[in-house]
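Re: your question about Aldo/keto reductase

S., sorry for the slow reply, the queue was backed up all week. Below is exactly what I fed in.
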Amino acid sequence: MVQTRQPQARAAVLRMINEIGCKGCLNNWLVSSAIVGPRTEAQWDTYAGALEVKVSAEDEAFIDSLVTPGHASTPGFNYVAHFVSGRRAR
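Result:
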């Protein structure tokens, strides 16, 4: 969880994280469409905002440096029933 004393800054960071996550899903060559079910209009705005996000090769490389492609973000966790070989951009 992002810790900050400024609620507006925290909200902006969380929105950016959500948009990049949604865009990553849409950039995955295995995903042909996304089904969304927002609880609030603000969540819908975040999903729609992901359509405008531009993720460069440098951004992808940075994300891959944080989380090994094909693995969960939790260190050492591998769910063998749903193995993923890594992300490939479209």
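The helical segments are 7-27, 41-49, 57-66. The first helix runs from residue 7 to 27.

Happy to talk it through on Thursday.
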